[in-house]
Amino acid sequence: MIYTTMENLKSYYGISKHLDRALAYLKDCDLRALTMGRNEVEGAQVWINRFDYETIPREKGAFEAHEKHLDIHILLSGRECIGIGQTSKMQETGRDEENDGIDLKGEAEQFLLMEPGKVLVAFPEDAHMVKIQWDESCQVEKAVVKVRL
Predict the structure, then answer these.
(1) Are 3 and 119 in contact (CB under 8 A)?
(2) Model confidence over 59-68: pLDDT tens digits?
């Protein structure tokens, strides 16, 4: 897991070629100009999902993880909390092979505040519970960069 700011993303070049491509794209991209839904960057290797939602209470949250991709979470507006836990300490409750999704049940080891300017990079070992309200429910605009490992 990497929890940082947009300004510090440049420190993470060299981890993988596809992550490098995503970071280079983010450096010059206006994420607000992207259309809602899937936005292609580099075919099946790097793409961005742009969406919005209302945050929910922690007790309604659920963990997810991915084996073949990492996620770069970037908030464009609003505030949310993302719970993080180790996949190895959780119980798998479902799997969507086609979309590289794994549903998990377990406990969060920490909760991170996400607001504009903050970035969370979740690797396959990082189960993440998204859409969680920080102090009260609010509308969030978000981009998630999907990067093939």
Answers:
(1) yes
(2) 999 999 999 9
State if pTM tops 0.90: yes
CA distance 101 to 88: 15
Question: Cα separations (Å) of 110 from 59, 68, 96, 124, 128?
Answer: 15, 23, 25, 17, 10
Give dist(CA 8, CA 13) in Å, integer.
11
Q: How many C-beta atoms surround the C-beta of residue 26 within 10 A?
A: 19
Find the Cα–Cα–Cα–Cα dihedral 107, 116, 72, 103, rounded to 10°: 30
| Identity of residue 2 | I
